[in-house]
Specification:
The chain is mostly helical and about 300 residues long. It contains 13 helices and 2 strands; from the N terminus they run αββαααααααααααα. The protein has a two-stranded antiparallel ribbon.
């Protein structure tokens, strides 16, 4: 009688079985993230694109109209004016945020007395939501019951109370001040992590070679912080282009619709005029602009050859 003895699988087959199992385990780990992206981004994006091709009122039947909503955007002067103001606001507020956040990051990057207190104090406004911060500043700027104008009047600094939100320039710069106050601390933390990732021996070698602070900043700090700067810049620009809360809560688009942002106009078309198809088309156009701007920023701040 012949006895069959089971033999072990060859080493190559065991490796293939182990690799396949690891791949399945890896897919199981990323499955929840993929599901969240599908539910909260891909599917809504597809529905928005589909809606933009329809005449979609709030009540009643919707009808397919092809690209008519996109052609209508070309004649929508209010949207282009809002987009132009949004671009102006984005440039000003981004420069202001970096002008405040970069010196703060350099100041708190190295250990010094009360460093943790400074970091906490500078970052604290970032934990406040935009809606809450807007309500706070709306009260501070109130001409009768607020803080700035009544306090200046009571102290005798002005002859009569003034409304900062009545004209464009004071209202615009009030919004800039509020956004910088709230966001600069968050940008500061991002820039500080970039500064701390720069090898200290490079700075010491440059000091030995006689390089001054400006030369070290230009030749070492800026090139090695390109990725960090790209991240902070994209976050700042994207957040500014999508600005809505502060302009809606504090100014309501005023005075005389001079602070109407692109997102505010999309909100107006979708949920005030109930032109959901037109609002969806406006959203798609704004998304394309936002993606294009992000790609341009990544290209401008791409990693140069020879820098690790």
């Amino acid at each position: 009688m012949t006895t069959i003895t089971p033999t072990a699988a060859p080493p190559r087959a065991r490796r293939l079985v182990g690799a396949g199992r690891r791949q399945w385990i890896g897919l199981l780990y990323v499955a929840p993230a993929v599901a969240l992206v599908m539910v909260f981004f891909v599917i809504p994006l597809g529905m928005t694109a589909w809606m933009s091709l329809h005449n979609w009122p709030l009540m009643g039947e919707h009808s397919f109209i092809g690209l008519d909503n996109y052609w209508a955007i070309l004649r929508d002067t209010r949207f282009w004016n809002a987009l132009r103001f949004t671009g102006y606001y984005t440039v000003i507020v981004t420069i202001a945020i970096f002008a405040i956040a970069f010196p703060l990051a350099i100041f708190i990057e190295k250990p010094r007395p009360l460093t943790n207190l400074y970091r906490t104090a500078f970052f604290m406004p970032a934990v406040v939501g935009f809606a809450s911060a807007s309500l706070l500043w709306s009260w501070l700027l109130n001409v009768d019951s607020g803080l700035f104008s009544p306090a200046a009047y009571e102290l005798g600094l002005i002859e009569k109370k003034f409304n900062l939100l009545a004209t464009f320039q004071p209202a615009f710069w009030s919004i800039i001040a509020m956004v910088v106050w709230k966001v600069a601390g968050f940008t500061m933390i991002i820039l500080m992590t970039g500064l701390q990732s720069i090898p200290q021996d490079l700075q010491e070698a440059a000091v030995i070679d006689g390089a001054g602070p400006f030369a070290r900043f230009r030749a070492i700090t800026l090139p090695l912080m390109r990725r960090t700067l790209a991240l902070a810049l994209i976050l700042s620009v994207a957040g500014s282009i999508l600005a809505f809360d502060q302009f809606y809560i504090i100014l309501r688009g005023g005075p005389r619709n001079q602070t109407l942002t692109a997102v505010y106009w999309i909100f107006n078309q979708s949920f005030v005029s109930f032109k959901l198809g037109h609002g969806a088309a406006l959203s798609m156009v704004l998304l394309v602009i936002l993606v294009a701007l992000s790609l341009v920023q990544l290209w401008l701040l791409r990693k140069p050859e020879g820098i690790d």
